[in-house]
C-alpha cells in the first residue's frame, strides 16, 4: 500500500494503463505542457510523448467526438474535460453518438472511451464551474457512470473504465483531488463497476452517499454514533451505471430506513431515482419514507456563505437521519 | 439531352469501359432504389423520415469510387446511396428502411442511420454536423496506428454552419489528419437556400480560415467528381493534411418525403434536371461506343429487378423480436453484467441481460403494429414456472 492523493492515484492509473496498452491515448485541454488544470496528467506528456498525450484546442464537442470516432476504429481514448459544466458543450457527442452508435448500428461497433471530468462545489467558482451532474449522465442508456470517492477507488475504477469496452463518464471531484488515501501498489488492482462499497457498518439506518457525499455521510455517521447512539450503515455505490442495487437493498432490508445524500440538484436527481427503486423493491421493509439530502435547487452562487449552504454538510445528514427515525433533534 | 456535353467522346476523364459501366450501374441502382423507397414510404412500409439522394448520384459514385477498400466513408442522414455505392447488399439496405431484423442495423437505425462496418461505411448520422468529429477520429486512428487509410467525410452545405465544422477543420489541420471533407452543396439546408444560410457561399473557401484548402468539382458529373476526389485523396494520403472538396449538385426531390418544396421554383428544378447525371453520363458512354442503347436499357431493367428483389426481401424479413429491445446497449462482460432499469413493460427493476431470457413465442400480439408485444418479466417468469 502507498498513501497517494486522489489526483496521484488517477495519474498512476493513467500511467499504468498507457504502459499496459499502446492503444490508450489521452486528449484534452491543457493536459500536456500545462500538466492538466488539476494536475491529474502531470508528467505523462514527458513520459509518453505527443502522439499519446495530446493538448487540444478548446473545442469540447469535437474533442469528445474525435474520441468516439477513434474508439470506433481501434483506439482507447481517454478524454479530459476541464469541468463537468464544459461537458454540456459535448452533450451531442456524448449522448447522440458515444452512447448511441452501438445500439443504433445494431452492435457493429463499440466505443471503448473514457470521458473524465471533475465536478463539485466549495471553491467559489460560481455558477458555471461548480455543479454536480452525475444525474444527467445516469439518465442516458449506453453510458457507464463512475463517481469515485477514495484514492483507491479513483485508481481502481479508472483502470477498469479504460479496460471496459463501453463509453464511461468518469466523474471526479475537485475537493477530492487533494485528499489522501491508501492505494494498492499492484498494477493489476482494479475496482469492478457495479460493486458498492460499505464504508461503515450499522443496523439503524442506511445512508447512501454519492461522490464526495460518501465522505460527508461517513462523518455524519460518526456524529450520529457519538452523540445519538445511532449506528448508520454508509454505502458508496461507486458506480451509478451499473448500479449495485442489491447491496443497497440488502442494507435497507436490515435497517428499514434510508437516507440518500448527493451534491446535485433535487429534481430528477440520483436520489430521486434511487428512492423510486428502493420503494419499488423494498416498500414492505421500510419503516419510514426514504429521505433525500441534496444540493439546493439553484445555480451555484459565488458568495462563500451562500455557496456553503447550497450543498449538503454533516448537520443536514444528521437531521435527515433523525427525521427518518422519528426523532428530529 | 447530350447537348450539355460538347464533346463527350473527347472527355479526358472517361474511364475504362468496364469501370464506366460499373459506375453507371451503381448510379442507376441508387436512382431506382431511391424511387422505390419513395413508393414504399407512400405505402407506409417505411416509417419516420426518408431523405432521397435522387440527383446526387454522380457525387456519390464519383467520390466513393475514388476510395480504396480500406478507406473510411462517413455520411449523413441522406446515405442510402453511399452505403450502396460502398458495396452494401441492397436487400439489407431496404430491410433497414423497413425496420426489419435483416436490415444493416437489425432495424434499429432506419433510413437516417445506415452502417456497414464490413464495407467500411461508417455510418449515416441524424445530427447535422455530428459526423465531422467522428471522421477526424477515424483519421486519428489511422494515423496513430500507422495505417495508410484515408477518411472521406460527406456532409451537406447546411452542416458547414455548425460549430463542429470549424472545430473539426481546425483540429484536422492542426494535427495533420488524413481526411477529405466533402461538402455536398445541393443548394439548400433543408428548405433554406445557400445564400440565405451561409454568408460565404463559395463553400470550398470555408475551410481556409482554419488552414484547410479547398477544391471544387461538378457534382453532377461523375468523372469530374472522381477526378477531383482522387486528387484530393492522393494529396491527403501523401501529405497528411485535410482538404475540403465542394461538390456542386442538386437534389431533384424534396429534403425529405414531407417537403412541399415551397422554397424553390419548378423552373429551377427543371433547369437542374436537364443535367441529370444518369442521362448525361449514359449519353456519354453511348457516344463513346462503350454502351449501346440496348445495353443501357438492360442495365436499367436489371437495376429495377435488383431493387424489386430488395423490396421482396425486406417485406419477407421479420420485425425484430421484442426480446431484442435491450440488445447492444452495452458490451456485456465480466465487468458490466447488466444494468438496472425500470419501465412499464417490466414493473420490477431488472438487469438488462435478463431481457434476453424472455420467450418471444409466447408473447401476445399487438394488433396495431403486428409486433409481438413484450409482457413483464414477472409474467414471463410466472408462465415459465
In DSSP terms, counting alpha (H) and pi (I) runs of 4 or more, how many helices of chain B? Answer: 12
Q: What is the spatial order of strands in the main beta sheet of chain A?
A: 3-2-4-5-7-6-12
Q: Could you say how many structural domains of chain A there are in total?
A: 2
Q: What is the class of the largest domain in chain B in the CATH system? A: Alpha Beta
**Assembly classification:** heterodimer
Largest sheet of chain A, in brief, is: 7 strands, mixed
The CATH superfamily of the largest domain in chain B turns out to be Thiamin diphosphate (ThDP)-binding fold, Pyr/PP domains
Strand residue content of chain A: 15-25%
What is the CA-atom radius of gyration of chain A, in angstroms? Answer: 20 Å
* Helical content band of chain A: 25-40%
What is the CATH architecture assignment of the largest domain in chain B? 3-Layer(aba) Sandwich
| CATH fold title of the largest domain in chain A | Rossmann fold
Helices and strands of chain A: which structural class?
alpha/beta
Quick one: how many beta strands of chain B? 11
Q: How far apart, in Å, are the first and last alpha carbons of chain A?
A: 41 Å
Q: Order of SSEs of chain B, N→C?
A: HHEHHHEHEEEHEHEHHHEEEEH
Biggest sheet features of chain B: 5 strands, parallel
Structural overview:
The complex is a heterodimer of chains A (329) and B (385). Helices cover 36% and strands 18% of the residues of chain A. By secondary structure, chain A is of the alpha/beta class. Chain A folds into two domains: 2-183, 3-Layer(aba) Sandwich (Rossmann fold), CATH 3.40.50.970; 197-324, Rossmann fold, CATH 3.40.50.920. In chain A, the strands form three sheets. Chain A has a seven-stranded mixed sheet with strand order 3-2-4-5-7-6-12, sandwiched between helices. A five-stranded mixed sheet of chain A has the order 9-11-10-13-14, with helices on both faces. In chain A, helix 3 packs parallel to helix 4 (91-98) and helix 8 (213-228) crosses helix 12 (314-324). The mean pLDDT of chain A is 96. Chain B is α/β, with parallel strands linked by helices. Chain B contains twelve helices and eleven strands. Chain B has helices at residues 17-42, 57-64, 80-85, 90-97, 131-144, 163-174, 194-197, 222-239, 266-273, 277-287, 293-316, 377-384; strands at residues 72-74, 151-156, 179-185, 188-189, 192-193, 214-218, 243-248, 340-343, 346-351, 365-366, 371-372. Chain B has a five-stranded parallel sheet with strand order 1-2-3-7-6, sandwiched between helices. In chain B, helix 1 packs antiparallel against helix 10 (277-287) and helix 1 crosses helix 11. Mean pLDDT of chain B is 88; it is low at 1-10 and 353-385. The interface between A and B is large, with 54 and 58 residues.
